[in-house]
Amino acid sequence: MEEVEQQKVNKKVLYSAVQPTNALTIGNYIGAIKNMVAMQDEYTCFFAIANMHAITVRQVPAQLRQKTLSLLALYMACGLDPNRCTLYVQSHVPCHAELAWVLNTFTYVGEMERMTQFKDKSAKHADNINMGLMDYPVLMAADILLYKTDVVPVGIDQRQHLEICRDIAIRFNNIYSPTFVVPEGVYPKVGAKIGDLLDPSKKMSKSAENANGTIFMDDDRDTIIRKFKRAVTDSDSEVRYDPENKPGVSNLLSIYTAFSGKSIEEAEREFAGRGYGDFKLAVGEAVADKLAPVQSEQARLLSDKEYLNSVLKAGAERAYKVASSTLSKVYRKIGFYQL
Ligand code: TYM
Questions:
Q1: Residue nearest to atom 24 of ligand 1 (CA)
Q2: pLDDT tens-digit readout, 187-205
Q3: Does residue 312 share a domain with residue 168?
Q4: pLDDT score of 7
Q5: pTM for the predicted model, two decimal places
Q6: Tens of pLDDT along 139-152?
Q7: What is the CATH number of the domain that holds 288?
Q8: What residues make up the domain containing 275?
Q9: Start-to-end Cα distance in the chain
Q10: For tag attachment on the chain, is the N or C end more exposed, with fewer CB atoms within 10 Å?
């Protein structure tokens, strides 16, 4: 039996990816990376560094190169282990672009025009509404479908992309015969959408206009504590999880539970009768305590480029094996003449 098929018999497949753009935020960590780490042994995992998605917005080439390696080191510093999962760079496996082209012919322009992220990014980058920006979800569908993926842990902002991926897979399977596994999105119960500290109705984002609302994974302790001190709360003084009426406090509680390992109820009890000042300081300290060892491990890993390259080489080879077998199945089904 083929290695891939063998893997499928033993474990379900999990796929996720992060773009190597700007510095990552604790939103990326809580919404995606933390879950990826927690699930890496239960599933056969593929984790990509989505540099092809990154270029849908103009990047400085030297920075994109540097951030690619830096994201690999961050993945590993957060606990993804290249001996237990496949870590690779998207552009190292040409099947992604190849399958995306085929899937383009099974995707309607109207569907892509309706995508919220496309509309948001078009407004933000009005001078560069390129085809890639519009095609972003199709490339993402190709990523996922190439690996016969069962589950995709992502933040809630990716739900629409997951839905269109499922639609494309089902459409293809109905026209031909079952070819793609139809994947499920997995969203964290708490923290699927971490809000900006200054405006919790907005997603915490790598590219926010005001960096004081965003905690970056490479922020130092003082910066983290200072940013939490300024976080918006409300005129009340009760630390209670109620996203509708207390969005700021609830956002801080989500962050606190993700970093302290405590439940929402435990956290509410811990801060009962104490003011927001104490609470915000405790959230800042929990985040800073957790990020400090991640940052030093990331720096240590980045000092050994040769080792990181070897991880990426092995990852690309493993990924290619699976991806190329799916691609050749697709090519056969659609009638591409094969030698
Ligand atoms: P990216 O780099 O924008 O985001 C990476 C992951 O972080 C999650 N995320 C958040 N979660 C909670 N709160 C937030 N404030 C927050 N901000 C970001 C995102 O939901 C995502 O899970 N398009 C993907 C990258 C990708 C991908 C894929 C993902 C490319 N191909 C295939 C899954 C499967 C993205 O948004 O990256």
A1: 18
A2: 988 889 999 999 999 999 9
A3: yes
A4: 52
A5: 0.95
A6: 999 999 999 999 99
A7: 1.10.240.10
A8: 211-298
A9: 23
A10: C
